[in-house]
Amino acid sequence: MKISKNWLSNFISTPKSNDKLESDLTKLGLEVDTINKNKDDHIIDIEFTPNRGDCLSVYGTARDLGAYKGKKINKPACSKSVTAKINTKIKNINSAISPEYRYMILNNINVNAKTPKYITTRLRLCEIAPVNIIVDISNYVMLEVGQPTHAFDLDKINGKLSIVQLKKKNIFLGIDNKEYIVDKDTEVIVDEKNIIHALPGVIGSKLSSVTSSTQNILFESAFFIPDTVRFLSRKFRIQTDSSYRFERGVDYNLTDYALSRIHFLLNEILNIGSKCIITKISKQSELTKKKQFEFDTKLFNRILGIDIGIKKIKLILMNLGIIFSGKKVIIPSHRSDISCNYDLVEEVSRIYGFDNIKEVPLENSVTKYYHHSSLNVRLVTLGYKEVINFTFIAKNYSEKPNSLELSNPISKEKSVMRESLLPGLLNNIVYNSNRQHKSIQLFERGKIYLKDRAKIKEPKVLSAVVCGNKSSLDLVSDGYIYGLGDLKSDILSIFPNVTFVRNKSSVYFDKDNSLSVLVDSKVIGECGILSSNIIRDFNLKSTVYAFELIEQDFISDNKVVFSELSQFPSVFKDITVVTNINTNVSNIVDEIKKESYKYMKNIRIKDIFINKDNLKSNNRNVTLEICLQSDTKTLQEKDILDDINKVMKSLKNKHKIQIQEA
Amino acid sequence: MDIHHTDLENALKDDLQKCNSQHDLLQIKSKYLGKKGLLTSLFVSIKNLDINERKRFGIELNNVKNILSQLLAKKLESLKSANDTTNRIDLDVPPRHHNNGSHHPISLIIRKIENIFLKYGFDIQDGPEIETEHYNFESLNISENHPARDMHDTFYLNNKLLLRTHTSSVQIHAMENSTAPFRVLAPGRVYRCDSDPTHSPMFHQIEGLCVDTDITFSNLKWVLNNFIREFFDSKSIKTRFRPSYFPFTEPSAEMDIMFNNKWLEVLGCGMVHPNVLKNVNIDPKKYSGFAFGLGIERFAMLAYQIKDLRVFFENDINFLEQFKHIR
Questions:
Q1: Angstroms from A228 CA to nearest CA on chain B
Q2: Number of CB pairs < 8 Å for A and B?
Q3: Rounded distance between C-alpha atoms, residue B122 and residue B126, angstroms
Q4: Nearest-CA neighbor of A297 among A328, A322, A337?
Q5: Partner B contacted by A520 (CB < 8 A)
Q6: Contact map slice: A 403-442 vs B, CB within 8 A
Q7: Is the pLDDT of residue A122 over 90?
């Protein structure tokens, strides 16, 4: 909000230096954006926090500065008013819309009189365009003391006005020249012919606005309930200077004064006579009750950690207009934001100054240990670069369309919550290959979002992609083709105790060229080559190796039970088998591991090679390496042969595998 | 007749030291062992000795010959291997299969901040990103028509669910799932329906919460001032706290740091509002606490002098690679 420095100086002396003024206001919590020179004035742009409705005027800001400096600020002069004996123009008021409603009737007004220059200048400085004398004075008083008022052309109102919920759907033409469809039950100001004259506290109607032909005026000054105004403002997407103030809480005791002040100014300019008659309608409301509660002296020290002293605390609060009455404090009507002792603590700390609160160390600071990032370190060491992608993507590829969709997305490309990190990583590949990167190796750690019936789950996932040459184009590495072996090796470097089994089906991966990743026989993810359909969807031509693992399911086992080391040499023997590419040798090796052998310590796939003769049949030779060792003796040829023969027998008979004769 | 075989040996060693090529070596060889070589001439002189002397001298000469031959052979080997590259590795070989891995700068900043607060005894916690109005707003004292909601342009999903607009919602989860005292740090992604050079629809925050029987604003100042000093590695960095407003803290403050001679807002903080404590069944008469929230991107931009927020989420390899030396 913009405030004129000269105008502010009419209420309280302001420092000549703008830096000092800025620092004073900032210390109070009135955040200054800028102070700019404008002709012979300065415009102070303040960003008020939403709790400080009381500061949204020159007088209000001056009052807060006054409290800081210990000075009482007086309101500008106003006409002496009398209360009207009869209410002629208001039929009905809903207290949930306006518990305090005032109006003043002005007859035979010269609407075409010129607004004094000092007023139009100040309006313009605050970015409000002058309209006519009535609207200008209304706006001027709002800027001056913070009470929004509204002037109706009295002759356009049919009968009496009601401030109620609309009985039947209707159309409303605002002063902004826009038509609004107003539903039943919406809060409105309506006349006896059901014509809507205003959305209370938000905007008036074009029909009853003051124009050059207006003669008689109904000047409204009311306290509108903040929630109601905010609801209307949001519903119709209209924010006005009036709604802005009512939402944040206008002083409920300001209605009479605002009309008297308007009367005073109009009388000065138009000589309308000194008689200021105000009609008053008041209803019961929690929000317009005098607020008081028991004062808690101990809370200040308990929350702030310093002993300011009760005398000083009371002085600060009294300067803010708070009255001490016995054990109780009475809160002034302009501070709707204060309702408990904690609010008073905030007020005292604000005026006393955070700078004057000393630092006190936290007791018992015990350093904690945390290892979240060690996974990242491992991946980075393996050559992966970490990326962070938006969690909303263009579309998911899952089979059951259960997507969590945003109802107000920024764009179609960012409209669905991701069920996999892979689409984001594929976008990163596209972006970087378009920028001449040939070796792309990326990972991301983050959440995916799944809907499981009514429940939402957000598992943490680790995904990585490898695309193009694993290394840049150096001749030494040329000819090296990245493969599944490298990917497996990377995964094992990160999660040492995973196992791999063939994939049965997959959303993102090529079913035949990918594996499930297991921990303790529980699937935690997949790895392999991404499906060609998805690759094509991203306009990529090269093969993408990837893995995606759910982190939450990965329980790292930190227990180790030491086993005694054998003092005797181990023996290594190779067996080569001929199998079809569809034969799951890894699985057979796992099976054999579970069988009981006397001396076999380990069996592993040592080598796979394709014999030229077997190319057509999709057969390949797999060399298994068997490690034998005894804990009690050096193995004899017979011991070795017994175990090896047993393995061969199992391969041949149980697993139906052909053994290559030596 | 006496032979000074050690003299011969030393003479040869001297000659070999100076020798750099196989050609020179041949000449040296002939100087000692050649037809007219020094040793050969001694052999020739044997015939002048008497029969008994001849044998002893012959054996001795043969020993000398062996020693000299060995020296020459060793030298030949070393000259040969000096020129032979078959056993040499090429020291200019580029690193094989090497890709520069790197941490994302946002991760680096989160880790750095976490490490500082771990020292103050904070635990790291995580909370859901898809939230209800209750956790994101209401339990934090932000009612439906609260003007503070203007500052939160919220993304909505169906069924009144939303993407959390701040990590402050983790405060509530943390307090519901455990009992006081608390020291909790919650980093994570947050969302605002806003996109331009200074706003990203997704960004990161860290929320801190400390609740105990005797927590004061003085503690808050100590923790945050020390955090800033450590983060920017400067004991003299100037900070200030100025009054502000958040519905879930009271008093509320913004913390500024002096950066390039200007005050720069870096975080929001305050004492936990009694209503928030009541909402999670913590007695505000017994407990008090402080909370703070900061934007990671802001800290990353300050730490690495990055000017455009969008660069964080483009994931350009040329950008990511600039952080490769940080492990």
A1: 8
A2: 240
A3: 13
A4: A328
A5: no
A6: 404-410, 414, 417, 428, 431-432, 435, 437, 439-442
A7: yes
Q: How far is B81 from chain A (nearest CA, A)?
A: 25
Whether A469 and B97 have beta carbons less than 8 Å apart is answered as no
Dihedral over alpha carbons A165, A170, A176, A177 (to 10 degrees):
-170
Task: Kindly tell me the burial class for residue B299, based on how many C-beta atoms sit within 10 Å of its own C-beta (0-12, 13-18, 19 or more).
Answer: buried
| Nearest Cα residue to B141 out of B278, B292, B237, B268 | B278
Instruction: Report which of B205, B240, B48, B56 is spatially closest to residue B126, judged by C-alpha positions.
Output: B205
* All domains in chain A, ordered by first residue: 2-69 (3.30.56.10), 81-288 (3.50.40.10), 291-356 (3.30.56.10), 374-550 (3.30.930.10), 571-659 (3.30.70.380)
* Continuous H helices in chain B: 5-18, 22-33, 38-44, 51-83, 105-119, 133-136, 169-176, 217-231, 274-279, 296-304, 311-314, 317-320
Is residue B301 within 8 A of residue B169, CB to CB? The reply is no
- Give yes or no for A355 touching B (CB within 8 A): yes
Please report, rounded to a whole number, the percentage of residues in chain B having pLDDT higher than 90: 59
Per the prediction, chain A carries an average pLDDT of 91
Q: Residue B90's pLDDT is what?
A: 78
A463 near A425, Cβ under 8 Å? yes
Report residue B4's pLDDT band, with 50, 70 and 90 as the boundaries.
low
The reported pTM is 0.84
In whole angstroms, give the CA distance from residue A642 to residue A599: 9
In this predicted structure, what is the pLDDT of residue A379? 93
- Torsion of the alpha carbons at A80, A82, A83 and A86, rounded to the nearest 10: -140
Find all residues with CB under 8 Å of A116, minimum gap 6, and list them: A269
Dihedral over alpha carbons B172, B173, B179, B183 (to 10 degrees): -80
CB atoms within 10 A of CB A518: 15
Q: Which of A260-274, A539-553, B3-17 shows the highest mean pLDDT?
A: A260-274
Q: Which of B94, B104, B318 sits opposite A386 (nearest CB)?
A: B104
CA dist., res. B240 & res. B242, Å (int)? 6
Its ipTM equals 0.85
Is A128 within 8 Å of A62 (Cβ atoms)?
no
Nearest to B219 among A49, A227, A362 (CB): A362
CB distance B292 to B219 below 8 Å = no
- Among B199, B174, B195, which Cα is nearest to B184's? B174
Nearest to A548 by CA among A421, A489, A463, A458: A463
pLDDT at position A552: 67
Task: Map residue A535 onto helix, strand or coil.
Answer: helix
The minimum CA-CA distance between B148 and chain A, rounded to whole Å, is: 6
Q: Do B250 and A342 touch (CB under 8 A)?
A: yes
In the predicted model, is pLDDT for residue B28 greater than 90? Answer: no
Buried b / exposed e over B86-96, threshold 16 CB at 10 Å, is eeeeeeeeeee
- Spatial separation of the C-alpha atoms in residues A241 and A297, rounded to whole Å: 39
Report DSSP letters for A160-218, one per residue: -EEEEE-SS-EEEEBTTS-EEEE-TT-EEEE-TT--EEEETTTEEBSTTS--TT---EE
Of A650, A640, A638, give the one whose Cα is nearest residue A571. A640
Q: Name residue, tokens 């067996």.
A: A575
The pairing of strands B123-124 and B182-191 is parallel
Cα A579 from Cα A660, distance rounded (Å): 10
For residue A472, what pLDDT band results from cuts at 50, 70 and 90? very low
Q: Please tell me whether residue B4 adopts helix, strand or coil conformation.
A: coil
Please list the residues that pair with A32 across neighbouring strands.
Answer: A46
**In A360-459, which residue ranges form alpha helices assigned H by DSSP?**
374-381, 422-433
